[in-house]
Amino acid sequence: MWNVILAMAESGRPVTAPPGIAPELTKVLRKAFTETVADPAFVAEMERGRRELSPEDGETMQRLLDEVAATPPETLTKLIGYTRRSEPSAR
């Protein structure tokens, strides 16, 4: 269960593509993303806007999301129950 919680925290706002995308296109998109988040002008704009920039590479995100997807449904049900109990409206 902890791996799901940690994955949720680590994933932030992932950039995704539709299922079944061609592997060649995946490589192109991942390369473009990596180059963009390393671009000095992009980094400067993020800093100017006081926005956090802590990108993960596509392979890392894929592994992380695959692990979450492999989580047994009963574990996810428990997790949902725990998180709902901590919401102010659930008290």
Please give the domain count. Answer: 1
Mean pLDDT: 84
Distance between the termini: 23 Å
Strand content: under 5%
Looking at the structure, what is the overall shape?
A: flat
Oligomer: single chain
> How would you spell out the order of helices and strands?
HHHHH
- Helical content band: 55-70%
Strand count, sense and barrel status of the largest sheet are: none
For the CA atoms, what is the radius of gyration?
17 Å
Protein model, in words:
The chain is mostly helical. It has one domain (2-7, 28-86). It contains 5 helices and no strands. The protein has helices at residues 2-11, 23-38, 40-48, 58-69, 73-85. Helix 1 (2-11) runs antiparallel to helix 4. The mean pLDDT is 84.
Describe the secondary-structure layout.
Layout: H1 2-11, H2 23-38, H3 40-48, H4 58-69, H5 73-85
